[in-house]
Amino acid sequence: MKLLASALLVLASSLSAQSPGSVQPTVVMAPVGEVKLQPGKTVKVELDFRIPANFHINSNKPKSPLLIPTSLKLDAAKPLEIAAIQYPPGEDQSFPFSPNEKLSVYSGDFEIVTLLKAPPSAKGSRYHVSGELYYQACDRNACYPPKKLPVEFDVGVR
Q1: Nearest CA to 87 among 102, 66, 73, 67?
Q2: Cis peptide before 119 (omega within 30 of 0)
Q3: How many C-beta neighbours within 10 Å does residue 63 have?
C-alpha cells in the first residue's frame, strides 16, 4: 500500500512540475488506506505528505515565532477520539535570504502520525475523520501565502 501511495505522490508532484514557471508550492497527501480499529483500542494512522521539489515548509516547531508552523487539525466523529498527533522533527537548513540562520523545515516526503482511540462501546461502525493541514510553502528566495490542505479518511471499528 505504501508503494502505491508513493507512486501517487510522485505522479502528483511531477504533473505540477511539467510546464516551466507554473510550479505551485502545493503539498499533496497520499490516500489513506483502510483504517481498522478495535473497540477499546488505539490505532496509529500514518499520513504521508509530499512537498514539490525546490520548496519547503516550516516544521511544526519553527525556530522563530515569526514563522508559521505546519499544523494538522483533525476532528473525529464521536465516539472516536484523536489521542495524539505526532509531527516529525524538522531538518535544519539555511537559505540565501538568511545564510547564517538555520530554519527547521520539511521538504520532500514527510509523515505525520495520528493516534485514534475508540471506546469499548464503539462497535461495527464506520466513522469519518476530517480536518486540514495548515502550512506555508517557501522556495529558496520567497515564501508564499499560507494554504490549507483538506485531510479526510474513514475508520472502521470492528
Answers
A1: 73
A2: no
A3: 15
Contacts for 157 with CB less than 8 Å, ≥ 6 apart: 36, 37, 38, 39, 80, 118, 122, 123, 124, 125, 126, 127
C-alpha closest to that of 55 among 110, 136, 137, 135: 137
Cell numbers 514557471 correspond to 21
All three cell numbers of 92, joined, read: 535544519
Give residue 5's Cα distance to chain centre.
13
Domain ranges of the chain: 2-157
pTM: 0.82
CATH domain 2-157 topology: Immunoglobulin-like (2.60.40)
**Mind listing the pLDDT tens digit of every residue in the chain (158 residues)?**
333 333 333 333 333 333 334 456 899 999 998 899 999 999 999 999 999 999 999 999 999 898 999 999 999 999 999 999 999 999 999 888 778 889 999 999 999 999 999 999 888 789 999 999 999 999 988 889 999 999 999 999 98
Written as nine digits, the cell of 28 is 499533496
